[in-house]
Amino acid sequence: MKKMGIVIAVIVGVILLIVVACVGSYNGLVDLSEDVDNEFSNVSVMLERRADLIPNLVNTVKGYASHEEKVIEEVTSARSELLKAKTVEEKADANSALDDAINKVLMLVENYPDLKANQNFINLQDELAGSENRIATARRDYNNKVKEYNSKIKKIPTNIIAGIAGFDEKEYFEVEEGKKEVPDVNFE
């Protein structure tokens, strides 16, 4: 009878150990998933901060280059799309379009020396540069958390818990290949 009690205690101990390990794995996945969501929120905040600077930039440029309406409309449209984007892919695509539009505005500025010297414009350029740096940092932090999370859900034995609990891979915030190059803009 004593041997049977020891065997039952060992079996209960092993089962308890497995349950504790499963609960620990599940809770770890929940924490990592929340970290990814938090980092995505940080990226969104930085993108919106930059988008909030755009109207001031557009208004400053409008005063000097009112006949360059197409470029100004492109920036306004790209900003609007960024603010409407919800998913990682939508935000990445909208961010790329806004990057292109902003690059066109900055290239347009080369044709207007008075605008380049305007203190408001200089301040806005500095703010945009700071925003770009914050966005790059937020994207890097987000992608690092996605890597950590995606790696975790693929490793044994956590992959079993992830599969059972429905933890799916998260998307990286990536720039499209064609969007990495500065566009060639000619206003002649």
Short description:
The chain has 188 residues and is mainly α. It is built from 6 helices and no strands.
Fold and architecture overview:
Mean pLDDT is 86; it is low at 178-188. This protein has 188 residues and is mainly α. Helices cover 80% and strands 0% of the residues. The longest helix has 63 residues, at 2-64. The chain has a single domain (2-179), classed as Up-down Bundle (de novo design (two linked rop proteins)), CATH 1.20.1440.20. α1 (2-64) runs antiparallel to α5 and α2 runs antiparallel to α3 (88-109).
How many structural domains can be distinguished in the coordinates?
1
> For the CA atoms, what is the radius of gyration?
25 Å
Q: Would you list the SSEs in sequence order as H and E?
A: HHHHHH
CATH superfamily: LemA-like domain
Report on the biggest sheet.
Answer: none
Helical element count?
Answer: 6
Global morphology: rod-shaped
The fold-level CATH name is: de novo design (two linked rop proteins)
The average pLDDT score comes to 86
**Helix content bin:** over 70%
The SS-based structural class is: mainly alpha
**Amino- and carboxy-terminal Cα gap:** 97 Å
- Poorly predicted regions are 178-188
Strand content: under 5%
* CATH hierarchy: architecture: Up-down Bundle
Total number of beta strands: 0
CATH class group: Mainly Alpha
